[in-house]
Fold:
Amino acid sequence: MPADTFTFEAIPRWERLPEGLSLHETPGVAVDAQDRVYALTRNPENPIVVFERDGGFRGTFGKGTFTNRAHGILVGPDGMIYATDDGTSTITRWSPEGELLMTIGSPNQPSPRWSGLPFSRPTQAAVSHKTGHIFISDGYANARVHKYTPDGKHVLSWGEPGIDPGQFMIPHNIAIDPADNVYVADREAHRVQVFDAEGRLQAVWNNIHRPCGLTVGPDGNIYVGELNGVGLVEDCPGYGHRIEVFSPAGKLLARFGDPAEGEEPGHFIAPHGIAVDSAGDIYVGEVSYTIRGRLLDPPREMRSLCKIRRVP
Structure:
């Protein structure tokens, strides 16, 4: 366990939703340059919900575009919002005001499973600070990363199914730093792989339990949300449902989250998306209904969005 170089405190019920508005669950979360928070939900009636930094509600957009398999969201260095839906096998680009600007992929026309062709249930997009190229992890029925020009033209792809370095077992999330290092959360291989912008492998970080959420923070560190275990170990304490912070070189700097899953402040159920604002505060989106809520009797929506304040 690393030294406690990061101190955080959980904020109970940070977001303030209007009466009657439901998140269902929150697979993705992103923050813009003004520290506005964009929560991607699995409620197609209000798929993207926008909050102020203090949790105040700003509005929603995207109705009619997303399925209940909305998956990942990013605010790019251009200030635009990039959202991924593995149900439609598309990536969409939006203005901060909610205007649909571009769609990459043909809605509801996925490529053949494991074909390597874009897209078969893609998971997330990342945008280069240097060139504006769009990198897409693809995903649940492919084992590839695809690179596109800013206007949506395919450039190259890399990866194939497998456990060896450079191969993927569900490339679940992707992020890129200002130096164009591309970080891919290879979820079922319990690792993060690092590539350059041309797909050449640079490093492999092992021993990360089912990495789902992944982002590069303003401090240059890489923030990872781990999903819980599956099958016989799904309720095992310490198998996932926590947040980790890594240096750009892959050194573990911090790990937090109670060993037992839960909805209480400081606990997690299913971290799936993660974002960091200018103050170092962390926002975590969870697929808590999919992992736990739908299995309850009766099923119920569980907490799926939280804020963790960085303590100076």
User: Anything to note?
Assistant: The mean pLDDT is 95. The two ends are 21 Å apart (CA to CA). The first strand starts at residue 8 and ends at 11. Residues 288-291 form the longest helix (4 residues).
